[in-house]
Each structure stands twice: as C-alpha cells, then as structure tokens.
Amino acid sequence: MDLGIKGKTALVCAASKGLGKGCAMSLAREGVNVVITARGREALEATAEEIRKATGAKVTAVAGDITTPEGRAAALKACPQTDILVNNAGGPPPGDFRNWRRDDWIKALDGNMLTPIELIKSVIDGMIERRFGRIVNITSGAVKMPIPELGMSNGARTGLTGFVAGLSRSVAQHNVTINNLLPGPFDTDRLRSNMAFNAKKAGKTPEEFAKSRMEANPSKRFGTVEEFGDACAFLCGAPAGYIVGQNLLLDGGAFPGTF
Questions:
Q1: Is the sign of the CA dihedral 176, 111, 44, 76 positive or negative?
Q2: Cα–Cα distances in Å, from 145 out to 77, 157, 182, 184?
Q3: What tens digit of pLDDT does each residue of 192-209 get?
Q4: What are the two backbone dihedrals, phi and then psi, of residue 183, each rounded to the nearest 5 degrees?
Q5: How large is the C-alpha radius of gyration of the chain?
Q6: Which tens digit of pLDDT belongs to each residue from 8-25?
Q7: C-alpha–C-alpha distance, residues 80 and 86, integer Å
Q8: Are the C-beta atoms of 48 and 92 separated by less than 8 Å?
C-alpha cells in the first residue's frame, strides 16, 4: 500500500530506541523526511545513521530534553514544517502512590501530558493551513486497563487521552487527524525495567517473570518495535484520514474486552 506521505516531514520524539525508533524507521521507509529527538546524543546519532543506511531517507538528529521549552524549541527549529508529529516520552517509574510527592506528579504530567499538548499547539495551525496533518501520541494500554504500580503513568496518559478526544474532532475537517497508539507488552527497555521491578516483588528472576508474562498473553509473545512502527506509519498515511480521535490498542489480545 502506498501511504501517500513520501516527501512529508515528521518529528518523532524519544526516537533513539524502542517504540519511537520503530516509528521513525517505518516512516523513513515510506519516504518521509524524519527529525528525531532524544536526550542522549550518542545513541540518537547512531540511530539516525542506522535509519539513513536502511532507508536512504533524510534524517536529522536533535539531542535535547523534549519536556523542556529549550528542547522543544530546538526540535521544532529543525522541523519548521511538521506534517507528522509522533509524541512519545518515557513513562514515570513504578511504585506506591503513598511515596510520590507533588514534584513527582508534576514531572509525570510534564512528560506524558503537557509536553505532547505543547507540541501539538506548536504544529497544528500549520497543518490546518496546509490541509494535511497527522498526530500520533504513543500512550499506553494502561489507558484502557490501568496498571496498579504505574499510577503516575495511568493518570498523566489518561489526561492526554481526554484532551485529544475533544481536540481531534475540531480539526478533522481540515484533514488533520489526531490518534493514540496504546502499546501493551513490547520488547523494549521500558518493559524490561518494569518486569525487573515486578519480578523482585514476586520473588522471581526477570527471566522467569518474562516467560510467565508471555505465556499469559494470547499471542504468547511480546510485540516488536517493527510492527508497532508500521502501525504508526499507517495512521500517519493519507488512507487513514477518516480515523479520528481513536485509541488503537496493540497488546497481542491481552485486553479482554469486546470493545
């Protein structure tokens, strides 16, 4: 399928590894010029070169903290015409809500709710003027099925989901779509760190815990960043213009609901 986005420009956040990297790679394969951001310069530059070699696409790496005004300004300066925005940020750590202070909550909200909103605000009017825009927010399966030890993530990402539900309907007439991708268990550093936390609580090794998690999933495996990236690329494509304000769950069937 031709997604009709060759020559477009995408800003992909937290793209040096994991799901963000998968999205950047899939978009680059579609002929999209990609601007990638992350805090670690060395890993980011290595990812940019990997994507260039694999796809031949133009890839610009901008190191910085996207949760800060300076980090956002640097990323947007490198991507003055943002046709596609992929919002992504590492989630807050697991733990017991009794131990979280106000500063911990503010940091979680900054990373997983307020920063995506600020980036959307920065690019959406240009998208409306050009009558093309695709915004994909990487949130979490926890938006549908909260994970007890990830309370800060549950709260912040659900707040973003509520905001997007309203905004997406108001801009759809301009061929600007906003949707959310909700990852379940994908083989990433984030998943491994959370499993290490839970394995310790359960008195298991990380390997034992990972095996039990895979066995509990209907697909009997974890997802790959490649398949996640391809799902993102499709939502960013021209054929997805009638998909508006949706929460697409990619979890191997773990969520047991009908809808």
A1: positive
A2: 37, 12, 11, 10
A3: 877 787 788 788 888 888
A4: -75, 140
A5: 18
A6: 999 999 999 999 999 999
A7: 15
A8: no
